[in-house]
Structures are given as C-alpha cells and as structure tokens.
Amino acid sequence: MSSFPAPSSITALKEPRTKLSIRRIRRSELPVDTVKLSRFLIGKVIVHDLPAGRVSGRIVETEAYPPGDPAVVIEHAELAKLFNNEPPDSSAA
What we know:
By secondary structure, this protein is an alpha+beta fold. Helix content is 31%, strand content 13%.
C-alpha cells in the first residue's frame, strides 16, 4: 500500500491557475552590486520559447562574489578546462 494520497485528492489541493503577465527585465533595472543583484534575482522566472514549446524555471539560489574575488577566477579557470577537455589541476586540491 502506498502512503501517497489518491490522485483525486492531489488535484483538489491545487490552486486555480491564474494568467500571469510576462515582463522582460531591462538591464537598467538590475542592481550593479553583486549581492543586491543576487537578492534581486531570487524568485524571478526565466522563460525561453523553443520550437517545441515554452520552458521556464524559477531562480531559487544564487551566488554573489565581489569583482576580482580570487575564488571566482580559479573557479572559472577550472570550468574552462572542463569544457576544453583538459585534465583538472592536481595542485589545486
């Protein structure tokens, strides 16, 4: 026996769908400070239209690094190696 509720009770819990308007965010609206930008983006929905239909996702987590932070430089260099099929730097461990 499953402990999950029956499908009919699940549909009863759903809220009625409301039509949402989509508004593109302008670059001028974005905060320049990385921490403020990170907080601004939480909860925003990214929408992309594809030939097969529309896909979307809500931003639930962000990271904010100050400009020039060495952690970002190292992380991006390691990511570049991965995308270029280079072996990871063994001295970084």
